[in-house]
Amino acid sequence: xxxxxxxxxxxxxQAEAAKAAGEIPxxxxxxxxxxxxxxxxxxxxxSHDPSAHAEIVAMRAAAQQLGNYRLEGCELYVTLEPCAMCxxxxxxxxxxxxxxxxxxxxxxxxxxxxxxxxxxxxxxxTQVSAGVLxxxxxxxxxxxxxxxxxxxxxxxxxxxxxxxxxxxxAFASIQDYPFASKFFSNTEDLRGWRMHYxxxxxxxxACTVLCLHDLPGWSYHYRHLISALSxxxxxxxxxxxxxxxxxxxxxxxxxxxxxxxxxSLQSLLMHLAPSKVLVLAEGQGVHLANAxxxxxxxxxLEVFQVPSCPDAVADGYPYPDQxxxxxxxxxxxxxxxxxxxxxxxxxxxxxxxxxGQFDIWVDRIEAVFCDG
Length: 372
What we know:
Blueprint: H1 3-20, E1 27-32, E2 35-41, H2 44-47, H3 54-66, E3 74-80, H4 84-93, E4 97-102, E5 127-130, H5 134-156, E6 163-164, E7 182-184, H6 187-190, E8 195-200, E9 207-212, H7 223-231, E10 235-239, E11 249-250, H8 258-272, E12 276-282, H9 285-295, E13 300-306, H10 326-341, H11 358-371
Parallel strand pairs: 3-4, 4-5, 9-10, 9-12, 12-13
Antiparallel strand pairs: 1-2, 1-3, 6-11, 7-8, 8-10
Helix pairs in contact: 1-5, 8-9, 9-10
């Protein structure tokens, strides 16, 4: 391990301490002659101090240690690219070198938004080294903000009395599902229930693939294909129907009607406003896709049926007990309703049986968008 990595890990430890205290996880250490003389973590919230960034806190500690407001010959390690305030303080303190981990595309003042360290007219010049342990530093911030969004969503979307919500812990051991969960709730169409969905790939993509799971089933079945499609620059939306996967689970079988699933799906898509859409429908989910295509004005180019891909272990995660399983028991009746209204006129070519060659599938999907 290099010296820079060693000191950056110390800064990461400070970032974790900031996270534990409810602050944005940024940490910093000041080093002189190979010795740490000051550490700091973000404390603006706790201290009611807008200047209490990790770098400022670390420099204050180092200055006290040296008995000098000048920090000449010192190096400062910080997990996030400094902002203009912190960069200015480093220049005033005569920091010799600053080393940061994650770039900051919104407020970074070491090259991302502007570069204060490159201004030649200033009377002191600090060397900059970027990207040390950048993946770990970025991951710490990304996980923090994802968890905070999920907490806000959970508070903003309380659980209705007539439904259950599978605890997050039930999915703790799930494999190959590295996606950020998103939730949608429309009181009128979803009756206050929360709908889980994945939205991967660039939001601005001109091509969107809508992945509808089997009945029963959930978005986990598309995990490998989602990664392959988004890697090609396609946007991929994969919802869990109400009662399935990570979505809320109405307690009564009677709640699982054709109207519920068609209206909730349409509401979600209106909310997300995707570009032209290609629908992938797994197994029996093709009947939902065809019913949706026949009942609503859509921009969908095609509906492709793909083979069902159940997973005996993962398919049990969303349903820890019988109370959560109303949608499973309702599935046969729901399928009969769907088959009765699924229009025979919808274009519904069937892809070849999946043989593990994702590139072939992705090529065919891209070809449809190009032809469309």
